[in-house]
Structures are given as structure tokens and as C-alpha cells.
Specification:
InterPro entries: AMPK_gamma/SDS23_families (IPR050511), CBS_dom (IPR000644), CBS_dom_sf (IPR046342)
Pfam families: CBS (PF00571)
Largest sheet: 4 strands, mixed
Keywords: CBS domain, Repeat
Protein name: SNF1-related protein kinase regulatory subunit gamma-1
Number of helices: 18
Radius of gyration: 23 Å
CATH class of one domain: Alpha Beta
Structural class: alpha/beta
CATH topology of one domain: CBS-domain
Oligomer: single chain
Helix content: 25-40%
Organism: Quillaja saponaria
Strand content: 5-15%
Distance between the termini: 52 Å
CATH superfamily of one domain: CBS-domain
CATH architecture of one domain: Roll
Number of strands: 13
């Protein structure tokens, strides 16, 4: 009779193996030799600690992108949108040729950071903020003087008409402000990279507990970025490992067994469909989250999802809102979906709201996230009322745990992050 190992190997041989599946087999080999008294999580920690991050499959070449520090915000937005990525390392154009990789890269610019800038510049005139009237006028008239930093409230955002972003994105200020000009504060992430010899466990912990969305992997010999690992890429790797013993021992558990969702109904940050879409982005910034549900008026059912990546449609296609007096969350969803349909583009928003029930297994959830290429799934009850939300980071955080004192002096040399950091 064939052993379980032989059956598994035969099954893997019958189908083409992706790089991620081969990596899963490497974890499987390590899993089989772990001490039997270890818990599944302890076994996985040991397996991932034994694999260098250099083993992770390389990202598509068109996603390993650098943005020059003297690029304008308009150029940065176009680059990120064109390559369908959420962030990119910023290379210092003034660095000497013999600079080390730590001196060559000065940060990670994210859509999230540009959102912060946009929100700060987008406050229309308000009696409580008279200086913002001058700021808005400067944007609309293409002046190059800096805007005042204001606090965007829902009452101010409500007056933002559909042509506001047309005026903003055509302004000289938006076109001339350079990426390095918005450095500092909470507007972007520090350049924290892994070396190819660092472990998988380090990578997974940075992507989950330490809330990084992507991590550059640096080749010290070349002094250049060798790979960029994202939360989405890790979820894809897990999806490709379905059927392997180590994955099934964990993946067949349902959400409640793994303590998910971490964010339950009473803590979900949400926006109602008739609220301004800028309020949605303001809430994401304030609560340091990547997306939120759009809720039907007078109920607790979600009619859509808005994520930070969707801000690009305010910046790259502002003409689609031209006829709206106010860009509400509902109008935003409608306009973007129509735009994507007209351009026959595939984008996560086109999938609509993705939901699951509490009895869903983590395996089912991973396969759904990977298939739909989304970053969050909403947990609903039998009547489709919201009960929670689960993100990619939540899933990775349930795969491994951080041993006491694990990072040691790993973060030495990285500037302390301010309280409002989005990393």
C-alpha cells in the first residue's frame, strides 16, 4: 500500500507545479521532520524560519518598480496606477553613485500617502477654516503656492462637486509637487528592506504584525532591489499550497477556530452610501485601514467596498464625475464601475462586495481572496448583515507568531514611526 507521502508526491506530479507549489513542497518536507510534540503553529514557525526569503518566487518584472525622488505626484500616481501596484520604493536621484542601498532609497511612496496629501489639499472653503479658501483657489487657478493643511470634515466634503478633482489634477501645484516634497510625517513609509538571507518567518511577521503591505528584498552584492513581496503574493502562495498536509492541517479550520474576524461588527469603520466619498478616504486615514464598506441608508447591509487603491480614479479619471454635484460614496461606486465597463478593464471593484459566513474555512477564504484579487472579505450573517471583516494581514497573522525577542536589533537604524504611520 502506498504511503501518504507517496500519494502526495504522485498527486503533485500529475499537475504542473507552480513556483509557489514547489515552495509549498519545501515547507512540507520540513514539516514532516518536525518534533511531534510541537503544535501546528510551532511547526510552521520552525519551517518558515528555515527557508530564506530568496526562495520566494520573484514578482512580475513590471511590479518591481522604482520611483525617482524628483518625480511629481502626478507622475507617481500614473506609475502606480499603470502597474496596478499600491506602493513603490523611492530612489534618491541625488545619491552618489557609490551609495549603499540604505542611502540609495529614501522611502516607500504609497497611494495611501498621496491620499493624505490630497485630503489635506482638498478642503473647500469653510467658515471655520478661512485659509482653505485661498488654498482651493490656488489649486483651481493653477498657482504654485503651498496649500494650507486643513481638517477635512464631512460637511466640507459634501460641497465637493464632480469637477473639483478635474481642477485639482490640472493644477500646476499637483503637477509640480515632487514625491520628496511630501516626505516625513505619516505621508509615506520608511525604506525597510529584507536581505535575501533573511527568513520567511521574518517576512511573514513584517507583513502581518508589523502591518507592512510590501517588502523590498535587497541583493547586497548588487546593491539593488531583487524582489518585492506583497501580502497578496503570500496569499497566492498559500492558495497554491492547498492539498499539502501542512496547509490542510491549518486551512481546514473555520474562522472562529482561528479567532477570526479580528474586527467585529461593532468595530467596523463604514460609510453610508449618501456620504461624500472623501469622508470614506478620511476615515481610512484616521483609522489606518485600507478599505471600508459602503452601507445602505437605514440598514446594516453593505452595497459595495471602497479601498485606498480606488483613490486613483479620482486622480487619473476625474472627468467621470463631471456631472455630479457631490461625489457621494454611491455615486463614486457607480461612476467607477461604469468607467471600468466602458474600458473593459478588470479591477477588484468590478467583483462587487465579496462576503463569507463564519463557518467558512480559512482555506475557502484564501482561495476566494486569491481568485478575486481582493484584500478583504466581509463576514455576514444569514440576512447579509455585516458581522466583521477579514483582511490579508489578519490571515497571515494566524499562520505564524512572533517568538519572544525575535527581532532583536533588526529595526536599529530605522527611524521610529510616528503614531499616525500607515506602515
Amino acid at each position: 500500500m502506498a504511503t501518504m507521502q507517496e500519494i502526495r508526491e504522485e498527486a503533485m506530479q500529475d499537475s504542473p507545479q507552480s513556483p509557489e507549489a514547489k515552495l509549498g513542497m519545501r515547507v512540507e518536507d520540513l514539516w514532516d521532520v518536525q518534533e511531534p510534540q510541537l503544535s501546528p503553529t510551532e511547526k510552521l514557525n520552525a519551517c518558515f524560519e528555515s527557508i530564506p526569503v530568496s526562495a520566494f518566487p520573484p514578482a512580475p518584472s513590471d511590479q518591481v518598480i522604482e520611483i525617482k525622488s524628483n518625480a511629481s505626484l502626478a507622475e507617481a500616481v500614473q506609475i502606480l496606477a499603470h502597474h496596478k501596484i499600491l506602493s513603490a520604493p523611492v530612489v534618491d536621484v541625488d545619491a552618489p553613485e557609490d551609495a549603499s542601498w540604505m542611502d540609495r532609497y529614501i522611502g516607500i511612496v504609497e497611494f495611501a500617502g498621496i491620499v493624505v496629501w490630497i485630503l489635506q489639499q482638498s478642503e473647500p472653503p469653510s467658515p471655520r477654516s478661512p485659509s482653505s479658501a485661498t488654498a482651493f483657489a490656488a489649486a483651481a487657478n493653477g498657482l504654485t503656492s503651498p496649500f494650507e493643511v486643513g481638517c477635512l470634515g464631512p460637511e466640507a466634503a459634501a460641497t465637493t462637486s464632480g469637477n473639483f478633482f478635474e481642477a485639482l489634477t490640472s493644477s500646476e501645484f499637483y503637477k509640480s509637487t515632487e514625491v520628496r516634497d511630501i516626505a516625513g510625517s505619516f505621508r509615506w513609509a520608511p525604506f525597510l528592506a529584507l536581505q535575501t538571507s533573511n527568513s520567511f518567518l521574518t517576512m511573514l511577521l513584517l507583513l502581518s504584525k508589523y502591518k507592512m503591505k510590501s517588502i523590498p528584498v535587497v541583493d547586497l552584492g548588487e546593491g539593488t532591489i531583487d524582489n518585492i513581496v506583497t501580502q497578496s503574493a503570500v496569499i497566492h502562495m498559500l492558495a497554491e499550497c492547498a492539498g499539502l498536509q501542512w496547509f490542510e492541517s491549518w486551512g481546514t479550520k473555520n474562522l472562529s477556530e482561528l479567532g477570526l474576524p479580528l474586527m467585529t461588527a461593532e468595530h467596523i469603520v463604514k460609510v453610508y452610501e449618501d456620504e461624500p466619498v472623501l469622508q470614506a478616504f478620511k476615515l481610512m486615514r484616521k483609522n489606518r485601514i485600507g478599505g471600508l464598506p459602503v452601507i445602505e441608508n437605514g440598514g446594516n447591509k453593505a452595497v459595495g467596498n471602497i479601498s485606498l487603491r480606488d483613490i486613483q480614479f479620482l486622480l487619473t479619471a476625474p472627468e467621470i464625475y463631471h456631472d455630479y454635484r457631490s461625489i457621494t460614496a454611491k455615486n463614486f461606486l457607480t461612476a467607477v464601475r461604469r468607467y471600468l465597463e466602458n474600458h473593459k478593464e478588470v479591477f477588484p471593484m468590478m467583483s462587487g462586495l465579496i462576503t463569507c459566513k463564519k463557518d467558512c474555512t480559512i482555506k475557502e477564504l484564501i482561495l476566494k481572496l486569491d481568485t478575486e484579487k481582493i484584500h478583504r472579505v466581509y463576514v455576514v450573517d444569514g440576512k447579509e448583515n455585516l458581522e466583521g471583516v477579514i483582511t490579508l494581514r489578519d490571515i497571515i497573522s494566524r499562520l505564524v507568531h512572533e517568538p519572544r525577542g525575535y527581532f532583536g536589533d533588526f529595526f536599529d537604524g530605522v527611524l521610529p514611526l510616528p503614531p499616525n504611520s500607515r506602515v
